[in-house]
Amino acid sequence: MSNNATLFLVFLTISAFLSSFIEGAQLILVNNCEESIWPGILGGGGQVTPKNGGFHMGSGEETIIDVPDKWSGRIWGRQGCTFDQNGKGSCQTGDCNAGSLTCQGTGGVPPATVVEMTLGSSSSPLHFYDVSLVDGFNLPVSMKPIGGGVGCGVAACEVDLNVCCPSALEVKRDGRVVGCKSACLAMQSAKYCCTGEYANPKACKPTLFANLFKAICPKAYSYAFDDSSSLNKLNESKSLLSSSAAERSSSDMKADCFDPIF
């Protein structure tokens, strides 16, 4: 399969929907890719992890997941996975739990595009959600509220950043770019990771790489302190989060690309 054909297959991909119901919420995951995806799920500290943290979704499939009130956690898509009958194997990106179908309380290996959320309750329906590129990028993701609500916004990275990934950040499998590292993952320094003396918004500023991510995906977190333009909140007891994927060709994307030098 050619490189461009593979890139086109990931323009429409996994989305997370949120709708309130009594004593909890529903997350509806939809795979709009033309290839399989293996979602990974991780509950926050002390939170449940639905479906043992991972499962398979074929192209066009939809899965509904029930979570309790005030649930927090993250969801990411794994791609290029192969598992045996015991659920052991590996993925090209987003792998977890030493190569297992079920992540079971472990996070994904970056780079991976991550959906993060902290949900409210039926009595206090204030939900926070975002799409983060802090751990890098592997698949386009869109998360959009439907049905009203005050202050609702779209959280998304709807285009294929792998097309524009600077050479220093590329992750390749079989000669094809399957992921794009964050600057933190590539450089492993406090300046790029917003740690140590840089662990505050005044000291940690967006880098050239974060600016590239932001220019192409303005509705996603591009670095650790990108809260003002990327963290969304939904104050509504009945709502739905759905996908809104934008299609752009590889040639369109390349017009926006640049390759910053360290």
From TrEMBL:
> What keywords does the record list, in alphabetical order?
Disulfide bond, Signal
Gene3D superfamilies of this UniProt entry? Thaumatin (2.60.110.10)
- PROSITE patterns, sorted: THAUMATIN_1 (PS00316), THAUMATIN_2 (PS51367)
InterPro entries membership? Osmotin/thaumatin-like_sf (IPR037176), Thaumatin (IPR001938), Thaumatin_CS (IPR017949)
One Pfam assignment: Thaumatin
Q: List the disulfide bonds.
A: 81-91, 96-103, 157-217, 165-180, 184-193, 194-204
Range of residues in the leader sequence:
1-24
Top-level division of the source organism's lineage: Eukaryota
Q: Which family does it belong to?
A: Belongs to the thaumatin family.
The record's annotation in PANTHER family points to: OS03G0233200 PROTEIN
Q: What is the protein's given name?
A: Thaumatin-like protein
